[in-house]
């Protein structure tokens, strides 16, 4: 059941707070009170009120100063300024700093009720827009609505996205660890550059299909061109994304022979169906991503050098979550709002100790892991608060420990490093294969095969819950 709307009343006059509080409580609102700045800011952090009624004249601090601090803590908070000495200049300043409206004392009850009703309608519309954006394909026209953050590193990414979006034909290579949001960036580039112009966003995971199937999906095929081919033939994804964008996720997993065919498409801007004779001109932006170091792959002859340079026209590198700690709580609150809408929950607060734990954790699975942790915590939380004991994360995995582990891997083979990493991720998600696959950035079939190869199912802390599924593969 949804909780009442919460109104924070900030005024140093006890009689005013009591009288207005009784009226608002009678209207069905939950009313919280504060008589000075720090108490008000603490309530905003811990209780996340919907509306704050804020007096301009408070002991030691002007209401405008509280307004600025409050909006930094909770940008979505609706603030109504109240003053016994209302002036046009004060009202203009209040609105400039983010106030919703301004009331002059003595406050009349009917206009106050009307204003609160209107403010809650505005909040409802904002929440609806937020939920629509959370489920959209990136066509909001703003990268900030898609990739959440306030750190310098993520703002640099915003700048890069806006710059490359201006050139609709430029090929983009998105680099970064699994779970950092590479697909979100690809969708944002498409959304900004094609806003109002149409054009599809088509994505494909290059690691999820065999070479022959991937070729058929990318380029399409003619009727009867190979055993099992549809009698009607099939349009390829490059054609389907004409005047739009094709996102080639995990491009580093593509076979060398298929890389050569992709290179031709990039060079000539044409595709040819499997079994076909005619070239088909396309106007499709190509955005590729990988968590591999493609320069090393080129040196090892596992990735074509000429294709690398064709893809690497405009590289964008996404920072891992551990390098942008100031974004962690902001992202967590974003996911709380998302899952409130999806799961019918009404979680309002992430407790201070839970926030501290989130910030201290090293996040090897990056933003994707954080999303999974918040979703699980909300399922476990029965009230409106996420507490630290609901967070299923390894509290011992700190940045310093990560460095020590890395140092111990200096003399390990690549296979041994991969085995250790897969095992750690599986333990972090309590053996849940689907969650582990998402964090690792691979499909479940690949994960099962790697677990079988490394004999991980019998490892301590890993329950073998999926024997039937593995046996079927």
Written account of the structure:
Helices cover 47% and strands 14% of the residues. With 473 residues, it is of the alpha/beta class. It has three domains: 6-134, Rossmann fold, CATH 3.40.50; 143-317, P-loop containing nucleotide triphosphate hydrolases (Rossmann fold); 323-471, Helicase, Ruva Protein, domain 3 (Orthogonal Bundle), CATH 1.10.8.60. The chain has a five-stranded parallel β-sheet with strand order 2-1-3-6-7, with helices on both faces. The longest helix has 26 residues, at 109-134. Mean pLDDT is 82; it is low at 129-140, 396-407 and 464-473.
> Which structural class should the secondary elements be placed in?
alpha/beta
Strand order of the largest sheet: 2-1-3-6-7
Q: Can you name the CATH architecture of the largest domain?
A: 3-Layer(aba) Sandwich
**CATH structural class of the largest domain:** Alpha Beta
N-C termini distance? 43 Å
Strand-residue fraction? 5-15%
Q: What count of structural domains? A: 3
CATH fourth-tier homologous superfamily of the largest domain: P-loop containing nucleotide triphosphate hydrolases
Low-pLDDT runs: 129-140, 396-407, 464-473
Inertia-based shape: elongated
Helix content, binned percent? 40-55%
The number of helical runs is 20
Assembly status? single chain
Mean pLDDT over all positions: 82
Biggest β-sheet, characterized?
5 strands, parallel
Named CATH topology of the largest domain: Rossmann fold
